Amino acid sequence: MAVFNTEGSEGSQRCLLSPPSPSFPKVGSKTRSSAAPSLPFFAAAPQPCGEAHWEVLTGVRPRSFLLRLQFRPRRTRTAAVGDPARTITCSLSLSQVPAPELQGYSRCGASRGPSLPPPGPGGGAAGGAVQKAVPPRTPHLTLSVPWWQEPGGRRRVGQPGRSPSPGCTHGSRIYPILGTYWDNCNRCTCQEQGQWECDQEPCLVDEDMINAINRGNYGWRAGNHSAFWGMTLDEGIRYRLGTIRPSSSVTNMNEIHTVLGPGEVLPMAFEASEKWPNLIHGPLDQGNCAGSWAFSTAAVASDRVSIHSLGHMAPVLSPQNLLSCNTHNQQGCRGGRLDGAWWFLRRRGVVSDHCYPFMGSERDEAGPAPRCMMHSRAMGRGKRQATARCPSSHVHANDIYQVTPAYRLGSSEKEIMKELMENGPVQALMEVHEDFFLYQGGIYSHTPVSLGRPERYRRHGTHSVKITGWGQETLPDGRTLKYWTAANSWGPAWGERGHFRIVRGANECDIESFVLGVWGRVGMEDMAHR
């Protein structure tokens, strides 16, 4: 509850504001929501208007939003006859104002206040008379953010009689004391001395790092991926990865070693999409869902089922089915394990992405996935059948797709190459460092540009991706670099159309340390009827 007083010839009037709990958009999303801020976030000053407009700072990146506040006064009774305090209770409604209308809501409207019916002392004639509201002269507000500007000059929220502060300048705009703007992921606040005070969080998009990488001879280019602008490095690690390293019992599982035949030579370059055209699916986009465990699993399984069915089945399998339904020891958009994902695909199976589309790309942050909306039952010989309709009302095909048990490959470069060329794309764990988010093209390797900076600028987390091929390239300085080609799950706008190349044969970022393959479960009936 917040209170402001207004003085006038009719004495002191008090309006108690009890705001509802709206949801505010947050960083990186069109429909992100969070808990409503307290009223001190409202940049407000009392205005004798029937409909007043204030700017609201939500306290989240990367920008503020305007809300429309409407005051509808209603009559109340005084506590006692002759009580000098006349109480006016105002109902308050809020609605978000579209961004193009920002300029129109920077000041109070022209219409003056509605009629207010404060009861008169003694219960006489004035008690039932409707009297005109008295325009406020000395507002008393204790709010953390002052209101913006109004024609005729700026006011400062504070105690009556204090002189206005000059505020702070940023670009061509003058901000009041405690006014804020966002510089990438850091909020800058105007202090009483007229100086800006800015947060010092490491940002996911670091312009100094971009310049240092591009000046160096590292074999790859860095750039600003716009979807990451306004996010901190910590948020990138927390929301854009999401694969939990497997337990020791899983990492110690027996490897399947592939042996090259006598005289067998692997090609210098290979790409799965060239060997199996139309059966290798494009990169997915996990948004701010820390679910790379589900996305990389669905991506590899989609390609393998398509290849092993000779194209009779070519689904894009549903990551959402895994996120929402594979809940045993998994955390949805807060992270999960690859062995648990493959167990679910083998024992329960998943439907296509058309049937059960991803629901998390507009979420504000990593969190629990929506409840499971797709279940299946056994129908003999290990096969499953869906027991519910597709969550997408436009799709009726709710076929369940399954795989055989996943197997771990040896860490040898040659073994991974042979498996990939014979059976299709493979899944790999990798450690993602702070510079990987900036990858724009070339052959990636982790750079030392952050070594001289504080530790909070050097972060890493575990990710999982789909390796689709390999090759080698001669750089302008004469060096020849071998590389893997891999599909990420950050959308087609990141990297090289959603893919990246990374140094091969050196276990760069641990990408060769834990690699998995799988076979799609395909029967004769599948080949005949799909």
Describe the structure.
- This protein is an alpha+beta fold and 530 residues long.
- Among the domains are: 2-139, no CATH class; 220-313 and 406-529, Cathepsin B, Chain A (Alpha-Beta Complex), CATH 3.90.70.10.
- 14% of the residues lie in helices and 24% in strands.
- β1 and β2 (11-17) form a beta hairpin.
- It starts with a strand and ends with a helix.
- The model is unreliable at 1-163 (pLDDT under 50).
- InterPro entries: Papain-like_cys_pep_sf, Pept_his_AS, Peptidase_C1A, Peptidase_C1A_C.
- Keywords: Disulfide bond, Glycoprotein, Secreted.
Q: How would you summarize this macromolecular structure in one to three sentences?
A:
With 530 residues, the chain is an alpha+beta fold. Among the domains are: 2-139, no CATH class; 220-313 and 406-529, Cathepsin B, Chain A (Alpha-Beta Complex), CATH 3.90.70.10. The chain has helices at residues 207-215, 233-239, 248-251, 272-275, 292-308, 319-325, 338-347, 413-423, 524-529; strands at 2-8, 11-17, 42-43, 51-56, 65-74, 86-96, 115-116, 131-132, 168-170, 173-175, 180-183, 186-190, 196-198, 220-222, 255-256, 270-271, 376-378, 384-386, 407-409, 426-433, 439-444, 460-474, 480-487, 499-503, 515-517.
